[in-house]
Amino acid sequence: MVMKLIVAIVQDQDAPSLIEELTENRFGVTKLSSTGGFLKAGNTTLLIGIEEENIEKVINIVERNCKTREISTSLLTVSMPGDTYMPYPLEVKVGGATLFILDVEQHIKI
Ligand code: 2BA
Which of 7, 38, 72, 101 for a ligand 1 pocket mutation test, highest count of atoms within 8 Å of Cβ? Predict the structure, then answer.
């Protein structure tokens, strides 16, 4: 049995329904609170260990629950010379999900 680990970075507000549907379908999931490096805002990272044959099914569930991308304006702070910070508005696309799919060498439960 070949196992894969999906690391899914999603928006906080999409996480509850996504976790619910994964759990209903008997996929194991671990939720981590994370912070995006660019926006420095909270997001959710899910670890989902699955058999290889279920990859498509899980990707479909993520697609269904993670809202389509929309433009959001964020106030970003940049550091300026002399220890000052300057806020400036920035438009970025948020929503959807970022997935990494990794091979699992071993999966042991003790
Ligand atoms: P953040 O790093 O806070 O990025 C939030 C969104 O800001 C990104 O959405 C993208 O639309 C925009 N963005 C990121 N870096 C940018 C840059 N250098 N210039 C202009 N715009 C930029 P997503 O690409 O959907 O990423 C959502 C979150 O997924 C990221 O939050 C980060 O936490 C994670 N992520 C994305 N790519 C990653 C990667 N290659 N490795 C690890 N984590 C990643």
Answer: 38
